[in-house]
Amino acid sequence: MALIALLPGDGIGPEVVAEARRVLDALALDLTFEEAPVGGAAYLVAGNPLPSATLALAKRADAILFGAVGDPQFEALERRLRPEAAILGLRRELGLFANLRPATLTPGLEDASPLKPEIARTLDLLIVRELTGDVYFGEKGRRTGLGGVREGWDSMRYDEVEVERIARVGFETARRRKNKLCSVDKANVLETSQLWRDVVNEVSGDYDDVELTHMYVDNAAMQLVHNPGQFDVIVTGNLFGDILSDQASACAGSIGMLPSASLSSWRSNLGLYEPIHGSAPDIAGQGIANPCGTILSAAMMLDHSLDLGEAARRIEAAVATAIVGGARTADIGGTLSTGAMGDAILAAL
Q: In whole angstroms, what is the distance from residue 194 CA to residue 156 CA?
């Protein structure tokens, strides 16, 4: 029996995680669930966005299903106590260094994409984002500069071991798809990116069967809306991956549709699975959030961490069938509630 840690978090997190749990229960798999607070919800009960008990559960679990963290009421706290510190802490403590973010247009959602339908239909890519380095984890601070002017500074850094590790995930992922890998950087102006490009080129020698290309991040952002069909697998750093994956989700029709997997070096099969959207506090509690990204994250969890690929395909097919049948929440042009969308997917399942 596999143990799943449920970390619903803040905002719409509990609502969408509940729908994913319903789908997993309907499959009657050999799973057991334990829930723990995280983010702002955890700060309210424990004074810490990542309590020791929550971290201990995450380390014991076979996989983690995560909702979202973040709430404006905590913005005045020092950074280490804000809800977002929880997900950064989980990434650091569990070695969650590789984030897989697929972006595919679900048939029937062409009108929800800002792209022309004929362009939107070509969207079928996967972004491999490095998660534990870059500017998010570099040294940072505030200081007073010349003339008493306030400055904020953040250090962007990678070492060659970190780049090689994520590059190999990119190449291995490309081998399971179409053998095409695009490495995105900003090597024309950033020394960090030049090291990135050098190491990716070195690693490519072990993957002669994978076609490697390089692209600057500003061009990649343009190409995602101009010709997304040219991409299969993109590998990139933490900052660029954060931005590009959100852009790709908009091309797919809604940020509420897309799942993600964060894979660990701490234990090979351990992963944290979450929708790529945030906590959306403006709609929390209204029952209108799209649960598809979380439900599809549960499918990725079954596939990557639990070796239950057949069950994962059933979930993916059920979501697609529900969408084609007209089931839609407000973000993709419909009127269904969160629960009603879950009902439609369960009916398709």
A: 12
Q: Which phi and psi angles does 273 have, rounded to 5°?
A: -120, 130
Instruction: Report the length, in residues, of the chain.
Output: 349
Pairing of strands 96-104, 259-264: antiparallel
Neighbours of 199 (CB within 10 A): 21
What pLDDT digit, counting tens, does each position of 108-148 carry? 899 889 999 999 999 999 999 999 999 988 899 999 988 89
What are the backbone angles phi and psi of residue 211, rounded to the nearest 5°? Answer: -80, 115
Q: Which amino acid is at 12?
A: I
Which two structure tokens, joined as six digits, stand for 274? 């979450």
In this structure, the dihedral spanned by the alpha carbons of residues 306, 169, 262 and 315, taken in order and rounded to 10 degrees, is -50
- Tens of pLDDT along 268-322? 789 999 999 999 999 999 999 999 999 999 999 999 999 999 999 999 999 999 9
pTM: 0.90
Where b means 16+ CB within 10 Å and e means fewer, 222-238 reads: ebbbeebeebbbbbbbb
Q: With b meaning 16 or more CB within 10 Å and e meaning fewer, what string describes 145-156?
A: eeeeeeeeeeeb
Give the residue numbers annotated as catalytic, written as ranges: 136, 186, 218, 242, 246
Phi then psi dihedrals of residue 7, to 5 deg: -120, 85
Q: How far is CA 201 from the centre of its chain?
A: 26
Within 8 A by CB and 6+ apart from 130, the residues are: 97, 98, 99, 158, 162, 163, 166, 235, 236, 237, 238, 241
